Fold these 4 entries.
Entry 1:
Amino acid sequence: MSTPLGYDLPLGYDLPLGYDLPLGYDLIVQQLIPGYASLARLAVALLAASPRASSSGAAVLVAGCGTGAELVEARAQRPDWQLTAIDPSAEMLAASQQRLGVESISWRQTTVEDLNADGCFAGALSVLVLQSLPDDGSKLAFLTALARSLEPGGQLVLVDLMAPERSTLQSQVEAAWMGFQRASGLNADPHDLAPLTQGLHPIGEARLTALVNAAGFGDPARLFQALGYEGFLLQRRP
């Protein structure tokens, strides 16, 4: 059964060939995802409180920077951070660079798997990216590359759509998603919504725990939940 909610493609890992960003794209995502407006602020605040990324001038990776929501918050909360922003989409990088400027941020059009930055970062942010990758080894490769890019003890804030729990109340939760979208005034063109609501690969918490452990992280600590969207704090094992 498909979810009535989508995911934030600008922060995701794949933009369909030939797809143009609609005007007001960030607003559309806010109307789709409960709590989206607070996600970037919360993610940055959590990482800023971590033992390693709290240090002045800490190197921080934003994996799947999209239109730059986490980067805007990082600059506001921690202007001393040395930020590296990556995204495999040239369109996403261009949108983010236009929003923030090209100075003081290291921009890379690449995936974290191809970044080759072993142990370079004190912390990392991955918001609404893992959900777009199939669980055919791609999720594990992504998480392993993130763990490898961190210093031992470095932390990752991971936020994604999760697979629904088996519950007699699930139909009510899905109805609430639809109600949230209507109350938010969502009135987007189907062409604009299609890349945001199709091709997702959410997993449950048990599967996520198995994957992050295999990748080199400790058990995930839940820090955010809004309907089907959940955030976790992960720490690379020594």
Entry 2:
Amino acid sequence: MRRIKGTIFVLPLILAALCSHASAQQSVASSDVPKEAGFRLKGLDGKFYDTSEMRGDVVVVSFGATWCTPCTWELVAIEELKEEYEGKPVKFLWVNIEDTKRTTNGILRYYVKDRRLTIPVLRDPGGEALTQFSTGARIPVVVFFDRDGHLSAPVHHGMSQDIALYKQMVRERVNALLGAQTEKSGAHAATK
């Protein structure tokens, strides 16, 4: 019995250490992503979404799949954050990375409707957009663009089990990017 209690206590510590080690490795790898990275993808709504045309807004892009349970929880967080940032220069996008033969647009539309998603849903079936930001297999992958349209490193991999902590991480990144633009504007005005 004592051995089982010890194992139950130690297992979460080992998992936390492995996750933080993997996150540290992925953050280092994501620093190699060029600042000019971006994409143009078609959404389920038939429109094209081009990150280079979204200047002026902080853009949060999540790459995921319908079969990915952490991605589903992450979408709940993203939807809640979208509501929280309503009226502010922030856009949220979700990019589905699945093959269109396996997950047709019809299946994806059902998934979107079933989860009551209001954020634009884009397709990246070949994974070309995703490979700019991540070569690993761990999803979701979340990418942040500043208001000048530049990638803001590091790229975030995975979803924490606590949705509140995950939302706080996204909130901190978005607020920092919003604040950076305000600081730039203030500095620019002071030099005139």
Entry 3:
Amino acid sequence: MTQLLRNREKKAPLRDRKPPPALESIETGRQIRRRRLWKIAGTAFNLAILLLSVVILVRTFATVNYWELRAAIQATSSHQIALAFLFCATSYLSLTGYDAIALRHLGLRVPYPTTALASFASFSIAFTLGFPLITAGTVRYWIYSQAGLSAAKVASLTVVASVTFWLGMVLIIGASFVARPAAIAEVDHLQAWINFLIGLGAVGALLAYLVWVARGHRRMRIQGLKLELPGLGLTLSQIVLGLADLCSAAAVLYFLLPSDHGTDFLSFAATYVLACLLGIASNVPGGIGAFEATMLNSVPAPSPEALLASLLLFRVVYYLVPFLLALALLGAHEGMRHWTSLREAMNHGTDED
């Protein structure tokens, strides 16, 4: 009997045989070491960006005349401020579409006021405090769970909304690098033809993604979460929304710049997106430091004080004001929810009497 079992084991196909436990542990050890190396490399990259940003900011602030900075802030016209708030509202309105598209893709029905509140509050808080997976995810779950969504559905919604953001970024980088390679060369200090190739690569990657989702290859797995990405129609809507959001956000800062900056909007939008990418890579809340350093080193201005004044006003208009408004709306939402529960309880008690 023992000899018969041994013969069957010898005749078994190689694909059916399990690797020895020692080989499994070695492979696991290799994967762990690879993950550790990638983590160390990512941390080193983040620290390098942060250190470079600090150096640029320290050098800039060392030469800043604070009286001239104050004068530059006061010189900003009410017309500039009004345009900045208008495009800020347009950007955050586009962001509510991120959640609306994700909900439609997931086949979930949530009233638009609830969607708008969850999107606006989660994005504005995440933009200011950073750590979007924690801050934005917590706010979204708090609001959407009251509408009956599970944690898995909220996680899927967050991933789809993030894809919308990145699709818009890729399109802006591709279009601007192809259309303005020489102007972008003054920012990234690369040859114009290299920037042109980068733009073609970004556009090609976006087209390849569209073909990929159009052919139905949309299933993916992210940290144990199984997700199906939107199809071609919704993906095109994602691109339009991402483009509208990022262009509106860039316009906030663009119209706060001094009138004689001499930068066309398409080149500026590419610079803005690159600054956002470095801010995200620095892993600092709001990308503060890395974003400002990139702009100070890239955008022409009559003086450092004039550009720094525009950046400070941008932080107030696009980050601080929406953040405070989101906190107020969340407080009002929670107060109304508790008041409704109390009123229902009182009505129920009256009915029983």
Entry 4:
Amino acid sequence: MIKKHLFTCSVICVLFIISKLFVFSVPDRKPLKNSSALIDFLLAKKSPNPILNFADEVVPVSNAKVNTRIRKSIKKHRFNTQSEELQVKAKKWFPIIEPILKLYGIPEDFKYIPLLESGFDSHVRSPRGAAGVWQFMPGTAREYGLKVGKGKDDRLNVRKSTIAACKYIKELYGEFNSWTLAAAAYNAGSPRVAKAINRQNKGNYFYMHLNHETAKYVYTLVAMKEVVDRPVKAGTAPLLAELQPAEVLTIN
């Protein structure tokens, strides 16, 4: 009987010692709140590739204001009546302009500019005189090699105007060293974008104060990219579900 008690006590002591060793072997982990690791985890857990970007320049969705704006832009373009039309136009025209962009070293994402500017309708003319799929003004078109006038308008030629656009975009990138700023400058002009750069925003488009049209320009390009590249299909969740504002606001 005494032997049985001694055996039981020995087993209890061993188990107690083992439990203590296990407790003290677990490292002290501090909460990840407000850390970049938490942000990365929240953004990555929904999908293998939820990162939004334009020309590989990441949209800072961890910022609450940026997150709200990009969500609204994606929702507007994904669920409107023109989303299917965007798909059709993309399939028709992208194979024509993609090789030209690649030839001139321009990121493929710039193919969404003519989709935004003109809907790939070469006959669209703005009240100010811009024309063609890239919506070139006459003076800018001539500056980059297009013939405009005397019954000829190269702005209406998709291939020729795409070559001119590549030259213009490459020049803008050379000035700002940023593809998002090059896209913004394509819309607003380089002087206006350059003036908006300061110490606070450090030349980051998403934190800059720009006119209303230019401030939403890159957001719209990213939204169009999502609509065309990631169409909503039966049984799949749109990217909007992966960008929960509650999570982002908690982080911030």
